[in-house]
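quick q for whoever's on today - can somebody do inverse folding on this one?? i tried earlier but teh output was garbage lol. tokens:
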């Protein structure tokens, strides 16, 4: 087995066909022992489970039936993710035992939707079988009855699983080769240009941009629970409590397991958030490579923010008192992060004043030096 390439990404060998087949055979045996006295219906979750369910049934020694459901998860900005049913639950399952067959269970969002789907039917009982299971990220809401292989939180392809629809036909399973990943924190006061710069840098360096302020604003606009929670703090220019923000950030990172790297914008803003970020990344074999500060003085920033407030309608940008309160929050809670990252040897700063392009170039130089040193 050697490296493979799908679209723009490289993947390295992770699990061999033989190991996978052993796990499939074992699950078939476990299910057979539990259901030998009846005829269960195996329901595969498309598209990922097609290969697993085919092999599973080849190893299943007793009479059985097979059917499929299809869900689509839209992983936008919300932390919950919305799951839509594309292929409904099979008919005639009333009073029957159903085995839901999943290729992989990670956070548990899809599983939640599946449980919801089958709870609305009159099945005798339903069990869940998953070939792969990411114990590190699973929310633990429902029991998983049959598990093939527990795997770390890596992005994998092959044996039914895809990267942008490719790789499903591979007999072995591969994992993303992300040794070249680069993760950056953009640091600076409100108005320093973090968002503007991130939108250029993410394209140039193929990174995923996560702005906690943007995610909060999206949630407020869509009146989600998270939005309702954050609104009052944001309106006053106060920080949203760490607990809420850290959880949200974790969800955003986990929605993008295939990212080549991240630009964190507006996070961390407290030492507790920085520590949580280090822990989160470490658990995924990742790390922050650089924290880059955009330096600018308060009077220029206030001018910029008031101008932005007029254009964008952001209320926290329209009132000088609220702006000053955000600066105070920054000085008190965020500024100490400078020494946090300095002590890790990861702190850089660039002059944030000048033409947008000039500032992008200054940041680009720092990022390129990281890419070269690997
Ligand atoms: P921003 O768009 O980054 O200026 O953020 C706007 C507002 O969102 C802040 O004033 C906070 O109320 C809230 N917010 C954004 N990021 C964080 C964070 N990391 N921790 C706490 N609150 C945050």
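ok took a stab at it. sequence:
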């Amino acid at each position: 087995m050697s490296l493979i390439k799908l679209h723009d990404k490289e993947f390295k060998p992770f699990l061999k066909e033989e190991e996978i087949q052993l796990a499939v055979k074992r699950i078939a045996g476990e299910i057979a022992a539990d259901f030998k006295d009846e005829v269960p219906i195996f329901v595969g979750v498309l598209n990922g489970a097609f290969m697993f369910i085919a092999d599973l049934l080849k190893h299943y020694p007793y009479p059985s039936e097979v059917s499929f459901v299809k869900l689509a998860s839209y992983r936008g900005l919300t932390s919950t993710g919305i799951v839509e049913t594309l292929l409904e639950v099979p008919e005639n399952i009333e009073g029957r035992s159903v085995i839901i067959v999943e290729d992989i269970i990670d956070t548990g969002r899809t599983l939640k939707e599946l449980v919801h789907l089958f709870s609305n039917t009159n099945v005798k009982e339903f069990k869940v079988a998953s070939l792969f299971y990411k114990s590190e990220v699973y929310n633990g809401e429902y029991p998983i009855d049959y598990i093939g292989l527990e795997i770390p939180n890596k992005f994998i392809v092959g044996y039914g699983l895809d990267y942008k629809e490719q790789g499903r036909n591979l007999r072995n399973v591969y994992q993303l080769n992300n040794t070249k990943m680069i993760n950056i924190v953009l640091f600076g006061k409100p108005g320093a240009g973090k968002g503007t710069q991130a939108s250029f840098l993410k394209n140039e360096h193929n990174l995923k941009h996560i702005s906690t302020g943007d995610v909060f604003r999206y949630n407020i606009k869509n009146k989600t629970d998270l939005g309702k929670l954050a609104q009052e703090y944001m309106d006053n220019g106060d920080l949203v409590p760490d607990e809420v923000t850290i959880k949200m950030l974790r969800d955003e990172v986990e929605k993008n397991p295939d990212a080549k790297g991240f630009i964190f914008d507006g996070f961390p803003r407290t030492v507790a958030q920085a520590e949580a970020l280090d822990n989160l990344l470490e658990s995924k074999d990742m790390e922050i490579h650089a924290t880059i500060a955009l330096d600018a003085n308060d009077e220029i920033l206030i001018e910029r923010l008031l101008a932005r407030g007029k254009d964008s309608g952001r209320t926290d940008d329209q009132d000088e008192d609220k702006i000053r309160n955000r600066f105070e929050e920054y000085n008190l809670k965020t500024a100490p992060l400078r020494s946090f990252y300095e002590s890790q040897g990861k702190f850089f700063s660039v002059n944030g004043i000048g033409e947008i392009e000039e500032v992008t170039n200054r940041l680009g130089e720092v990022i390129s030096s990281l890419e070269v040193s690997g």
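fwiw Confidence is low (pLDDT under 50) at residues 74-81. also Residues 17-35 form the longest helix (19 residues). so keep that in mind when u check it
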